[in-house]
Every structure is written in structure tokens, then in C-alpha cells.
Amino acid sequence: MLHSKIKPLIYAAMTAAIYYVLCVAIAPLSYGQIQCRISEVILLFCMHNTFAVYGYTLGCALANLTSPLGILDVIVGSLANLIVGSFARKCGKALPTVLFGAVFNGIVVGAELSIVYGSPFLLNAVCVAAGEAVSLLVGALLYAQFAPWDTIVALVGADYGIVSVLADSGNMGIIVFLVTLGIMVDLMNKGGGSEAFGRWASKTVS
Asked: What is the pTM of this model?
């Protein structure tokens, strides 16, 4: 009984450790506007294990302790991973997970970069989302045991791929939400909101 209770915790701890090592090992590519976190492949495993979601979140928090964005990235980045990981666990489908992970993290991390560095939000969001998509596609290959055809079927097939995604009204609602969120963040950035929040955060944290 005790072993059955400890095993999931060990699984979460190992997942967090793997995320941390994969992220820090290529640290220059894991942070900044142009980033590609290979550790994000773990998101695909969150589809089938709740404790993978916990490890995915904890690993991100630990890895972001070394982020040049500081404590903001520890809090916001790990919270974003918790949301994305929870979505993957509930959805259980590869393509929605890849799309949601890439777009949502692109928006959140893009906003962070705009706040800290004052760089254009849309450029940040696109670059981060592209890097995230590359990492998750690698994860999709790993998930399909490096079988390219099986990867394509998983991402595009009628049962679990893009066909079923576009036919699901709930998924379309998520797409609309992400687009709306991106527009709102961009408008806030252009209105000076991100810069003002950055000044407030720097004074508060320091």
C-alpha cells in the first residue's frame, strides 16, 4: 500500500528532474526570445498521467530559477505549464495538446519578454510559439516511437488529429480564446500596460 502511494510521487519527481536537466543543459536556447526547450517533450506524457503534470510544472519552476527573467518567470512560467499540462491531461489528444501548448506558451512567455525587455509582443509570441512547436513535434515523434507515419496519423488523423479537433466545438472555443487572449495582450502592450507593469514589478521585487 505504501509502495503504491510513493510510486506516483517518484514518477513526478523523476519527471521534474528530467525537465530540469534537459532545460538547463541547453540553457542558452531555453530562455529568451528565440528559445527551444527540448524539455517540453514531457508535455505529451502529461496526456496519460496526472503526476506527469505535477512534474512538468515543478521542473519548469526549478529550471526558471536560472532564467534571466527572474522570479517573474518562475511564477508565470510554471503556472502556464500547469495550465497547459492540465489541458493535455484532460484532452488526451496529441494535436490539440501541441497547438494549445505552442500558442498559449507563446502568448504568456511573449508577454513576459515584452514586460521585461520592452520588445514587440507579437514578435516575441511568434518566436516562442515556433520554438515550442518544434519541441512538441519532437515530442510527438517520441510519443509515436519515432515512426513518422504514426506521428502524422496522430496529428492529422480523423480519430484524434486535426479533423476531430476542428469538428469539436469545444476545441474551436479554445482557439477563439487563444486568439482573443493574444489580441488583448498585444493591445495592452501597445497601450503601455506591459511597460508600466514592468516598472512596478521591478520596484516591488527589488
From this structure: 0.71
Task: Please state, as a whole number, how many other Cβ atoms lie within 10 Å of the Cβ of residue 195.
Answer: 14
The rounded distance, in Å, linking the Cα atoms of 146 and 120 is 36
SS3 22: helix
Return the C-alpha cell found at 61.
519552476
DSSP three-state, residue 97: helix
* Each residue's pLDDT expressed in tens, for the chain with a length of 206 residues: 546 778 888 888 999 998 998 888 888 888 887 788 888 888 888 988 899 999 999 999 999 998 888 888 899 999 999 999 999 999 888 778 888 888 899 889 988 888 888 888 888 888 888 888 888 877 777 766 666 655 555 555 545 544 455 555 665 566 666 667 666 666 666 666 666 666 666 666 55
Q: Distance of CA 24 to CAs 64, 66, 128, Å?
A: 9, 8, 17
Do 114 and 120 touch, CB atoms closer than 8 A? Answer: yes
Cα 163 from Cα 149, distance rounded (Å): 16
